[in-house]
Each structure stands twice: as structure tokens, then as C-alpha cells.
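Good morning C.,

I know you're traveling, so I'll keep this short. The sequence:
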Amino acid sequence: MQFTSTTTTTLLSILLTSTVLASPHTTLATRDQDDNSNNNLNIFPSPDKYSEYAICRNKITKHQFPKLSALSDDGGCTRYFRGIDMTGVVTEVDLFRKDGINSACDCAAACLSRPTSCTNWVYKHTFAGAAIDNNARSCTLYSSPNLPSNVTLQYNTGVDTKSTGFQLLKPANNPQAGGDAPLTFLDTGNTMPDNFGVSGFVTRDTNGVLYC
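The C-alpha cells, ready to paste straight into the viewer:
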């Protein structure tokens, strides 16, 4: 086969075109260009539904937490579990009305205010005693979540421990036994579920953005 300058130019053009199409950036763009319409990938609710599932809007705001991840200055939290206590046992901080806790939003805000030590919170009846807020719902903060039922962790709190930043655990919480997340209740006998008890996650990413 005899190659002419025209043939060579054509082959080079084809080669360059195929190389460009096969580049990682182009392949990625081609692969992901229809992700918004792929229901297996785009599993998230549309922004206009945010107000329907966010709690504490206008109570936990971007004015209060400028780095809060929220769709508007009204803020709000979406990472919550109604009627369930998904908290763990590490770095327990107990807060009551005397500490300014009058709602679940105050509790979530208290956790957001402690991004280096708090990742989850619960607002529920702890039945701490009539002398403390007359047994009203209170707030508890933790740096660890509830563990699944097949997992138990024992924490080394001795002088040789390499763990840092956590407060001493209550003896009954070490080891931390896993289990299904308990419900929140209105009575000490755990017979009357409290639909207004709530717990939630809080975290901060490497860009300093807060999520709740």
C-alpha cells in the first residue's frame, strides 16, 4: 500500500482524535454526563424538598454557624433519627435546661459548637432526677455512635493508653456493648415510646464545613 501525504495526515488526525476521546478527563465526562438522570446514582431529594425534611431551620442558621452546610441562611439539620437514640458512650457531656437546653435544636447546636469532640447527640428523657430540670428531656453529647450488635469495644483508659481527647467513661459503659439502637421513652419502664425524642450526627470535613 502506498502512503501519500494526504493519507498520512488523515491517519494522524484519526490517531489524535482517538487519543483525546480515550483520555481520562473525556472518558469521565462522558461516563458521568447523564448521572443526574440515573436513579441508581442520583438518590438524593431535590433541593426544593429540603424544607420538608430539615429540622431546626431558623434555629440552627448560617449566621450562627457560617460554615454550616445548608441550602440557605435559614440553615437546619437533616442527619437525625426521630424516636431513636443512636449515640454511643465516649466523651459523654450531659446538658440540661440550666445549661440553656430547651429543645432538640439547642442540643444539636451544642454538638456543632464542639466539632473537635462531638459527633452525635440525643435529646430525650434520661430521668436524671426531679432535682435536675424536673425530669424534663435533656441533651447528651458523645464522640462515638451506637455500635452494631455483633461488635463490643473495650477502651483502655489506663496510664499507658495512647487514646487522647476523650473524657473518662462510666464503668458501665466500658466495654461498650453493641446492640440495636434503643428507642426514646416517656417512662422509666420503657413502655411508652417518645415520638419527640431525637438523635443525630454532626461532623466537620477537611474544608471546615459543618454538617448536621
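Safe travels,
E.
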